[in-house]
C-alpha cells in the first residue's frame, strides 16, 4: 500500500471514529438512550447478521432475493441503466443479481458502491469483477446517513442512465423524517434519466414480525448485544453486554419493530475515549434499532416528500416484501 493510500486510510479511520464519538455521545446522553444501529457491524456483527439471514424466522433477505431473481433483468432493462450506484452496499450480497443484468446488457457497465467500510468495498469489488470482468468498479467511502453530498460530488461519469439502489429494507431503519430526507439527498445526486430501486418490508401479521426479531436460537439477541462490544472496544468503555437483555416488539401505531437492550441491574458505564460516565437504572432501555414496515401509501408518501414519484411497484406473492422503482418528480 502506498504512503498516500495509508494516509487516506488513516484519515478515513480517524473521521469514522470522530463521527462515532459524536453520535454515541449524543445517543447515550439523551432520554431515552439510544445507539445508532450501524454500530452493530464489526466483523463479529456482520457474521451474526449473516447467520440471522439464514434463520427460518427471518424472511426478509429471502423475500428480497427472490424478487431480485425474478425482476432484476426487467428493472435494468426498463430503466436503461448502464451503471449501478448502491447505498450502504456492505458486502453487496444481493448486488450480483443486478450486476449480472447490467453486464448482460452493457459492454462496460459501472458499479459505484457507497459504504462506510473500505474493506467491504474492496472485497465486493473483487468478487463482482471475478464474475463480470468488464465491470468497472469505483467505490466511494462515506456514510449514507450523513455524507450524501459526498456521493453527489464523487460520482464518476456514466455512459447512460444510472440505477441507484437502496436495498435490504434499510430504509426502515430511518424514521418518518429521516427517510424522506435520505430520498431527497439521493434525488439531488440524480439526473433526469436516473432511477431509484428501493427495497422495503411490508406491514403483515404481528406474529411473523415478532418471530423475525426474536428467533428461537437467540442469534438476534447476540447481534443486538454486539453493539455494546463495538462501542466499548472503539471508545475504551466497560459495557457488560451480559448485563443486558434483548427486547424486540412491534409498535402497531407506528408500524415498526423496535429493538432495545434492557439493563438487568443498575450499573455505571464509562466510555473513557469520550470522557463520558453515566448510570443506567435497572430495567432502563437503550434503543438500538427501529425497523419500519410499509404500505404502498407510506412508500409513496416517503418518495413524494423526498422529491420522487413511484414508477413501478413490485411485491412478492405472499405480500411479505416489496421493491419500488422511482424517478425524480417533475419540478
Account of the 3D structure:
The protein is 41% helix and 24% strand. It has 331 residues and is α/β, with parallel strands linked by helices. It has a single domain (1-331), classed as Rossmann fold (3-Layer(aba) Sandwich), CATH 3.40.50. Strands 2, 3, 4, 5, 6, 7, 13 and 14 form an 8-stranded mixed β-sheet that branches. A 4-stranded mixed β-sheet has the order 1-12-9-8. α6 (148-154) runs parallel beside α7 (178-189).
Q: Secondary-structure blueprint of this entry?
A:
Elements (H helix, E strand, L loop, with lengths): L2 H26 L4 E2 L8 H11 L6 H20 L3 E5 L7 H11 L4 E6 L2 H14 L4 E2 L2 E2 L6 H7 L7 E5 L11 H12 L5 E7 L4 H8 L5 H16 L9 E8 L4 E8 L3 E5 L4 E5 L4 E8 L3 H10 L2 E8 L5 E8 L3
Helix pairs in contact: 2-9, 3-4, 6-7, 7-10
Portion of residues within helices: 40-55%
**The first-level CATH class name:** Alpha Beta
How many strand elements?
14
Q: What is the assigned CATH homologous superfamily?
A: Vaccinia Virus protein VP39
Integer count of domains: 1
Supply the number of helical segments.
Answer: 10
Tell me the β content. 15-25%
- What is the string of SSEs from the N terminus onward? HEHHEHEHEEHEHEHHEEEEEHEE
Largest sheet: 8 strands, mixed
Amino acid at each position: 500500500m502506498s504512503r498516500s493510500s495509508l494516509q487516506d486510510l488513516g484519515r478515513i479511520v480517524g473521521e469514522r471514529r470522530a463521527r462515532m464519538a459524536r453520535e454515541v455521545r449524543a445517543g447515550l446522553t439523551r432520554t431515552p438512550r439510544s445507539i445508532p444501529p450501524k454500530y452493530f457491524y464489526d466483523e463479529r456483527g456482520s457474521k451474526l447478521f449473516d447467520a440471522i439471514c439464514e434463520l427460518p424466522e427471518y424472511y426478509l433477505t429471502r423475500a428480497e432475493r427472490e424478487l431480485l431473481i425474478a425482476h432484476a433483468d426487467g428493472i435494468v432493462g426498463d430503466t436503461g441503466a448502464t451503471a449501478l450506484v448502491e447505498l450502504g452496499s456492505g458486502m453487496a450480497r444481493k448486488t450480483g443479481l443486478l450486476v449480472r443484468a447490467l453486464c448482460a446488457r452493457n459492454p462496460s457497465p459501472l458499479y459505484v458502491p457507497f459504504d462506510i467500510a473500505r474493506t467491504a468495498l474492496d472485497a465486493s469489488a473483487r468478487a463482482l469483477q471475478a464474475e463480470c470482468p468488464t465491470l468497472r468498479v469505483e467505490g466511494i467511502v462515506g456514510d449514507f446517513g450523513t455524507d450524501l453530498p459526498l456521493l453527489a460530488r464523487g460520482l464518476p461519469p456514466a455512459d447512460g442512465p444510472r440505477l441507484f439502489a437502496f436495498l435490504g429494507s434499510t430504509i426502515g431503519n430511518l424514521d418518518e423524517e429521516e427517510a424522506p430526507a435520505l430520498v431527497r439527498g439521493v434525488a439531488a445526486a440524480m439526473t433526469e434519466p436516473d432511477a431509484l430501486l428501493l427495497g422495503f418490508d411490508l406491514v403483515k401479521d404481528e406474529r411473523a414480525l415478532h418471530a423475525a426479531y426474536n428467533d428461537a436460537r437467540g442469534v438476534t439477541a447476540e447481534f443486538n448485544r454486539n453493539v455494546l462490544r463495538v462501542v466499548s472496544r472503539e471508545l475504551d468503555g466497560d459495557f457488560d453486554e451480559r448485563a443486558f437483555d434483548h427486547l424486540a416488539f412491534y409498535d402497531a401505531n407506528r408500524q415498526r419493530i423496535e429493538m432495545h437492550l434492557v439493563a438487568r441491574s443498575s450499573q455505571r458505564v464509562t466510555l473513557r475515549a469520550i470522557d463520558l460516565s453515566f448510570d443506567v437504572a435497572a430495567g432502563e432501555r437503550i434503543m438500538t434499532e427501529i425497523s419500519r414496515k410499509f404500505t404502498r401509501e407510506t412508500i409513496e408518501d416517503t418518495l413524494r416528500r423526498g422529491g420522487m414519484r413511484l414508477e413501478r411497484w413490485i411485491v412478492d406473492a405472499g405480500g411479505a416484501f416489496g421493491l419500488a422503482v422511482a424517478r425524480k418528480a417533475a419540478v
